[in-house]
Amino acid sequence: MKTFFSRDILIFLLISAVMLGLVARAFHNQIIEADTMREQADDRHERTYRIPAVRGEIYDRNGNLLALSTPMVAVQVDPKKIKQALSDYQQLMALLNLNSSRFMQLVRDNRDKKLSFVGYIESEDLKERINALNLPGVFIKKIAHSFHVGGDTQAPFVTVTDAKLSLWVQESTVSSYLYLFERLGKALGIPPKQIYRAVYADKDRHLYIKRQLTPDYRAKVESLKLPYVFVSNEYKRFYTNGEVNANLIGFTNIDGLGRDGLERAYDSYLQGQDGAKLVIKDVRGNVINTIKASYKQGEGTNDKAYANGGDIQLSIDQNIQYYTYKALMQVMYKHQPKSASAIVLDAKTGEILAMANVPSYHVNRIADRKGSGLRNRAVTDFIEPGSTIKPFIIAKAMDLGLIHKNSEIDTKNGVMILQGKRIKDTSRHGVLTPEGIIQKSSNVGTAKVALMMDKQQQYELYKQLGFERDSGVYFPGEVAKHLKHSDFWQPLDQASMSYGYGFNINLLSLARAYTVFANNGVLKEVSMFTKLNAAQTPVSEEQRVFSPAVAQQVLQMMTHVTKSGGTAVQAHIPGYQVAGKTGTSHKTSQKGGYQQNTYMSMFAGLVPASNPDMIMVVAVDEPSRGDYYGGKVAAPVFKEVMQHALRLRQIPPDILPAEHPHFYEQTPNLFKGQIAQSGSLAASVP
């Protein structure tokens, strides 16, 4: 009897435990997990995400990285959804006759595990109006339940009756809406009011709150589980040499699109092809399922973009580029011009080894991407080439048989009257040979030689040199050339254009023209990319400007410019023959004519002259302190850069040995004493 009684008690207890478990499970499903179930049922939505392609990298000729893209993240929100949800919560609180602080206090004070009891629903109308809002984390139930607040047995005990409908709120969900701006602002370091104003001012479905964030922000933001807040992948462009290359390479905008320089010129190639991923997300932004990853061309099954951008390898030598920029900065400090530009070419191929401009800008600082520092003046700015054009006139006249290397041109007292205008030299030179005209930079001598030609012949020369077309290298903002047709030339025009006045080109066009002296009279097209086997490319006679003999003779004449008595002694590099030509031209006036006290100082040089490896042209705009002559301002820039570049390219010296009878002819006076004492030039080179 006793055993039977004990067994009945045991069965009763087991049945009671099962019933209590079922009741608890029902409460858990109806109340605690109801929010999750409804979100899964009602708030799932499809969303398409862009899979950004990785922009191609930019390298110099030696494989040094110049521009790359680093992974970053962006935080964006859906303003429409956020504003609608917050408006609905405000309506709920208005229906309950509660302000926001009182509402959240009730939520905190009456919390049982995940849910909080807010109050009873006193009417059917109130129930329908609340249900119509369909708010996440808000539930109306008819259930009896008792609990200690927060599950703490020492906390107040709350009893809810099932005699009335009761309103329950999931604090984590509701607070994620009501405190969205505060929590997101704290995570991103942005004032909440700033986010609030941005959201309420925006009418689109996608608003970036902050971009170009380091990848660790993804976990920081996603851990907040804020509704309608999304973290997406993107890339930030970084430039390894900053201002050294800034106005050449340019930059991209925050969306990764090229906006200046080579980044803009070759944007379509560098950019690649973005992909897209279609996913199912819940209201909190969590990915429930990936439907597919698709592409603008075809479809795929993973998250890779259709195609990453192509890499570009430039002909630039970053070391020579650096030395060029550094030398220009030095001339800016010493002579305080408005700006300065320089270009270095491979003399045999036309490849651009350096192209630098100052002032420049810090390309990695977005705030600095403005002002005149953005301009790649070597291609965007006009110059009148001045006396740097004179060797071409001498060469053309020799090629036509009008003069020869020993011809004598009488410049008299350095003044020539033509059509009532004075053409003059800086000093009297009397009778000059073609070599003397180039060495002394005689305007009168050059004008007299030019007037021996038909004006059409001079015009055709300038066309052959490329002065009527662009560089052939696609640089954004490259200026169109201005060369008046010879039909409209007066004798004075022909004369003034022979020494570089009356027509405009850019610095790159001038550099290209000088390739004729390095290639036996053949013009080489310039390129920003390496040319495979360019030196072995068969010569087209259409590119020939002068005969090989004339080109060599004039090249030799230009070596006297950098020797004692020439206008560019400061361009001389110990151990090397340097051929070059200075230019010092008056700047044009906005009122017409020329300004008397503002100058463009220039120098164009080739080294080593015996077999040119490099060509460098330098232009210094309006030097305002110290000298203004090209030989004193621009020529030292040439020397500073070339002595480094020759070492980098391992070009051996070509100067004649000390025992050669013409040794002293190739060396400026300032080196004669040292060399005479040591017996060789090598001993005088530090």
Summarize the structure.
By secondary structure, this protein is of the alpha+beta class. It contains 25 helices and 26 strands.
Task: Please identify the structural class as seen in this structure.
Answer: alpha+beta
The biggest sheet, with number of strands, parallel, antiparallel or mixed sense and barrel status, is: 5 strands, mixed
The proportion of residues in beta strands is 15-25%
Low-confidence stretches: 35-42, 297-301, 667-686
Rg over alpha carbons: 40 Å
Q: How would you classify the quaternary structure? A: single chain
Number of domains: 3
Name the CATH superfamily classification of the largest domain: DD-peptidase/beta-lactamase superfamily
Question: Briefly, what CATH class of the largest domain?
Answer: Alpha Beta
Estimated helix fraction: 25-40%
Shape: elongated
Distance between the termini: 120 Å
Number of helices: 25
How many E strands? Answer: 26
CATH topology of the largest domain: Beta-lactamase
Mean pLDDT: 86
CATH architecture of the largest domain: 3-Layer(aba) Sandwich
Keywords: Carboxypeptidase, Hydrolase, Membrane, Protease
Domain Penicillin-binding protein dimerisation: 51-291
Main location: membrane
GO biological process, one term: cell wall organization
